[in-house]
Amino acid sequence: MKSDPLITYRRKPATLDAESLQSFAEVLRDRIARGREFHCRITNDAELQSLNAQFRGKDYPTDVLSFPHEAAAADDRSLGDIAISIQRARAQAREWGHATGDEIRILMLHGVLHLLGMDHESDSGQMKRTEMRWRRKFGLPVGLIERGAV
Questions:
Q1: Which of 8, 43, 73, 112 lies 20 to 30 angstroms, CA to CA, from 63?
Q2: Model pTM score
Q3: Vertex 106, ends 101 and 110: CA angle to 5°?
């Protein structure tokens, strides 16, 4: 039995390899989240700005937001939700010289680590080291924390 998709789109871009991104999300679920589900919505700047204002009090678009489920106990099957701006992903991919799909993978990895309770602003570098290790294993370009963009 096939599970529900881990990624949904506000409007799926024709130039994005959705199957490859879904496969990557499944790898994140299986290897990093240890089988626990998450949902990733790929949307636009307007929706990310709205979510950022509503939940963080910051009225501007951002690249990725994570919303851990409050009851995400170790035996709970769902970690939470991630929202990614396709517009930010495209711009950042251009800026850093890699594919948009790779940028979305970087953002998804970052979001999943947040869903697992990591916080690069307060953890003395643990999330940065973890993100770098996984990014290298997946063959991804330089990550968000390393860029200083978060």
A1: 73
A2: 0.88
A3: 145
